[in-house]
Amino acid sequence: MFERTIDRVTRIPPLGPGFDGERHKAALVVAPGDLPATDPFFLMADDNITQGGAFGEAHPHAGLETVTFMLNGTMEDTGGRLEEGDVEWMTSGSGIVHAENTMVSTGMRLFQLWLILPEAQRNMPPRVQVLRRAAMPVHAEPGVVATVYSGKSGDATAPTLNAVPVTLIDIRLAPGAVFAAHVPASYNAFVVALEGDLEAGATARKLAKGTVGWTGPMGDGDSALHLRAGADGARLLLYAGQPQNIAVVAKGPFIAGSTEELAGYYAAYRHGKFPHAGSMRPIAPYA
């Protein structure tokens, strides 16, 4: 059993202008450009809305998965409605169009993660999974409630389908509570402190609200990241995944293995070959 340490700490930058006018503010929780350090996580955005209404436009993706975690408020489009605590896990694969006629509530906040896909699955048929908070398995122990959206924690295992092996857990800790989060030692992982403060890892690295702590791959077998909440308790999201160790080329909403493959995505989209997410029946675990 490996005991993990927090290797580096970053902070979510101040919110800046988003893509949808003054009411949309955004920041990068995980910035693109250093995939060897963040693999398989390509980027993660923190999107915030100050006034509800129409949001963005329909757009394509290919060659990646998006994992949209609703932190506050609601978002609804032709594919359905996401409420606080819900997650949409969309595998774009060979290509998909989504976010058609999107409406969001005032005060909405979400994290959207981009995951690279393994070479063998990069052009798999697209699929959409809707993970309802109320349907997700929960691991509980004194002072700890861990809602498992992907992967497992203790005897709680999520039914989520993964192209890249990924663990996603929403962990809530009572004041002073301790918890050992177990993930495969080969995974790259990061935790985002959403509320309160905590100490993490073998060296009890302090993480305050708005900070991101990274812990890298350690080898084969199991590993544990030890967490201890501060006097006010804590809430954090744990993301962990198997690095793919592949080279990718990214442009706009696409991630490919080569410039030729990238050009193929653009051509397929221009010729209307991408299905629309709103016309697909989402996979809803336990539904």
Describe the structure using short key phrases.
27 strands, 2 domains, Jelly Rolls, seven-stranded antiparallel β-sheet, single chain, 287 residues, ten-stranded mixed β-sheet, mainly beta
What does this structure look like?
The chain is mainly β and 287 residues long. It has two domains: 14-133 and 255-278, Jelly Rolls (Sandwich), CATH 2.60.120; 137-241, Jelly Rolls (Sandwich). Helices cover 6% and strands 51% of the residues. The protein is built from two helices and 27 strands. Strands 1, 2, 16, 17, 20, 21, 22, 23, 24 and 25 form a ten-stranded mixed beta sheet that branches. The mean pLDDT is 96.
Question: TL;DR of this structure?
Answer:
This protein has helices spanning 35-38, 259-270; strands spanning 2-3, 8-11, 16-17, 24-30, 41-49, 53-54, 59-61, 64-72, 75-77, 80-82, 87-91, 96-98, 103-104, 109-116, 127-131, 138-141, 144-150, 152-153, 156-157, 166-173, 178-184, 188-200, 205-208, 211-215, 222-241, 249-251, 254-256.
- Radius of gyration (CA) equals 18 Å
By secondary-structure content and strand pairing, the structural class works out as mainly beta
Look at the structure and name the CATH superfamily of the largest domain.
Jelly Rolls
CATH class of the largest domain: Mainly Beta
Q: Share of helix among residues?
A: under 10%
The rounded distance between the terminal residues' Cα atoms is: 36 Å
| Biggest sheet statistics | 10 strands, mixed
Overall, the morphology is: globular
For this entry, what is the oligomeric state of its chains?
Answer: single chain
Determine the strand fraction and express it as a percent band. over 45%
Order of helices and strands: EEEEHEEEEEEEEEEEEEEEEEEEEEEEH
**Arithmetic mean pLDDT:** 96
Tell me which CATH architecture of the largest domain applies here. Answer: Sandwich
Tally of helical runs: 2
